[in-house]
Structure formats: C-alpha cells, structure tokens
C-alpha cells in the first residue's frame, strides 16, 4: 500500500450558528483540525488525532461539549462521548458523565483500560477517579450562555425546539499514514433534557463508527432520530456498497 496521505475532518455540530458566535466557532474548528493534523504529520495515529481534535473543542466554550455543554432540566451538565479504532473495532464510550473536563479522554481510557465499551454516570465517575482523571467543579463547565438558555427554556411559554437548532455536538474522523481510520464524538446533549437522557453520541454505530474496511463517521444532530437508523453505521454500509 505504501504510505497514505493523512487526513482529518472535524465538525463543530449541526444547527445554525448565530452571527455573533460565527467567528469563534469557525476558529475553534480550524484550531481543532490543525492540532489533529499536526499529530498525523508527526506520524501519530488516527486515534490520537481524533482524540486531540475533539479535546480541543471540548475545551472551547463555543461548543456543546466539555466546557460550554448545555444543561439538563435540573441545570446540570451531563456529557456523552465515544471513540473508535477502525483497525480492530476497539471502542470506548461514556454517557451522562459529570465533573470531567474531557469526556473523550475518559472514553479512550474505557477503551484501553477496561474490558467494556461503555461506562455511565456514577460508574464512569468512579472509573475516572481510579485512573487519575481530576474531577472539575461543575461551575467550571457551565458558561453564562448555557445558563441563559436553560432559564429561557424553563419559561412556561418557551419553545425548547427553537433552541435545539444550535446544537454543537463535536466530532472528528481521520485516516493516518498507515491507512488506519478512527472516529471521535463528544456532546453535552440537548438543552433541558431529562436527567439521565443519553443520545446517539455514546452509542456505537449511532454517534460514530470506524472500520478500516469501509471508513469512519461521526454524527451530529437530533440524537433520537440518529439512533433510530443507527446513522453512522448506516452511512458506512452505503460506502461499502460503493456509494
């Protein structure tokens, strides 16, 4: 095969971006892509590159992932993330996690340090503690904007659907010089969601899928709709068919 030209693609989420935030969102996506690409250029793996890109966007308050995540009905941050290696279908995911700055890093550790694919809620938090990931106070993850949105959605005449248009799940897919692919996706979910709601992001085949045989996908949009068709895997099925 020889060496492949490494490529990374990142997204900052579906939905419209409001004018005043356009510049920040765009530069956040560019920065994430460049950071992932730099790793690939240095011979890094696709897996490292997608993790790095997503981590960069989790740390950027413009996006609905990590710091900047939307709040659930109780005004708390609960986050989902997934990472997958196309070389061997190894995957790690976390759902409804709290007080962690980088859920994608935790998902990677679930993949590498456990026999499981998905850890949730309190158990994911215990695992984070066990592997030495520092707990961050929830306030550190909550932005003024997320709190405003949450309050607006609580008003009796509010239309939460209106606010869901600005979703901001983040993700990345990459292929490295060895020809291996990987995907990563991370999100704070839907604003004012029920406590304990888990969307497509943490679900293998819905929020993301990677297989060297056909490619890699990372999804964004309305999680419940994505889950119904197992979107990431469905897209790759069509790619296998030559589409």
UniProtKB/TrEMBL annotation:
Swiss-Prot/TrEMBL keywords: Autocatalytic cleavage, Hydrolase, Protease
Matches recorded under SUPFAM superfamilies: N-terminal nucleophile aminohydrolases (Ntn hydrolases)
GO molecular function list: asparaginase activity; beta-aspartyl-peptidase activity
EC number assigned by the record: 3.4.19.5, 3.5.1.1
GO annotations of cellular component type: cytoplasm
Top-level division of the source organism's lineage: Eukaryota
Record site: Cleavage: 168-169
Catalytic reaction(s) noted: L-asparagine + H2O = L-aspartate + NH4(+); Cleavage of a beta-linked Asp residue from the N-terminus of a polypeptide
UniProt cross-references to InterPro entries, sorted A to Z: ASRGL1_meta (IPR033844), Ntn_hydrolases_N (IPR029055), Peptidase_T2 (IPR000246)
Record-annotated active site: 169 (nucleophile)
Family designation: Belongs to the Ntn-hydrolase family.
Protein known as: Isoaspartyl peptidase/L-asparaginase
Species, as recorded: Nothocercus nigrocapillus
Gene: Asrgl1
């Amino acid at each position: 095969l020889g060496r492949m030209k490494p490529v990374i693609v990142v997204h900052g989420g579906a939905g419209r971006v409001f004018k005043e935030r356009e510049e920040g969102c765009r530069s956040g996506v560019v920065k994430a892509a460049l950071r992932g690409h730099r790793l690939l250029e240095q011979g890094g793996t696709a897996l490292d590159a997608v993790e790095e890109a997503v981590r960069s966007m989790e740390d950027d308050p413009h996006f609905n992932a990590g710091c900047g995540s939307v709040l659930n009905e109780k005004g708390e941050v609960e986050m989902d993330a997934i990472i997958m290696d196309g070389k061997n279908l190894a995957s790690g995911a976390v759902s409804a996690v709290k007080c962690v700055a980088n859920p994608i890093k935790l998902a990677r550790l679930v993949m590498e340090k456990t026999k499981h694919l998905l850890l949730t809620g309190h158990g994911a938090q215990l695992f984070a503690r066990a592997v030495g990931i520092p707990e961050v106070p929830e306030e550190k993850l909550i932005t003024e904007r997320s709190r405003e949105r949450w309050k607006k959605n609580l008003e009796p005449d509010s239309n939460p659907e209106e606010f869901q248009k600005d979703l901001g799940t983040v993700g990345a897919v990459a292929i490295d010089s060895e020809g291996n692919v990987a995907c990563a996706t991370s999100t704070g979910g839907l604003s004012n969601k029920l406590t304990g709601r888990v969307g497509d992001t943490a679900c293998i085949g819905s929020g993301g899928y990677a297989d060297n045989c056909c490619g890699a996908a990372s999804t964004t949009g309305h999680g419940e709709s994505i889950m119904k068709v197992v979107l990431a895997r469905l897209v790759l099925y069509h790619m296998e068919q030559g589409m």
